[in-house]
Amino acid sequence: MLCKYSFVCDAANVSQTGNLNVLGIFRNINAVKFPCQHPRFTYVANIEFHRSELGKHSFRINFIDDDGNDIISPLTGEIEVSAANRSANILIELANIQFPKAGVYEIDLILDNQHLTTESITVVQTN
Hints:
Elements: E1 2-14, E2 20-26, E3 28-31, E4 36-48, E5 55-64, E6 75-81, E7 87-99, E8 103-111, E9 114-125
Parallel strand pairs: 3-9
Antiparallel strand pairs: 1-2, 1-4, 4-7, 5-6, 5-8, 8-9
């Protein structure tokens, strides 16, 4: 298995024809005061599997601060991989996430109990 890409964006969906539609990829959030809350964003990842990896795969998303504390409870799910479609999109919409302080926050993707990739969001205090 290989993570082809992962990112955080304002919104994403998969069309009826299978196209991934993405709006507003970002890496930073600006906040005037803390704690701050971000109304809505989406975590997107695309995983490509080898033909020997057909079947079900479990995944977990951990969202942590720079001290290693959970921002939200881990999110879990399952991917079904078939010979006809050996890639899978993971789209996780996150709403009203509270950031207690400025810093780097990480979203870890764990697939079959193996760390696959990490995306970072930097929350910056602005005037």
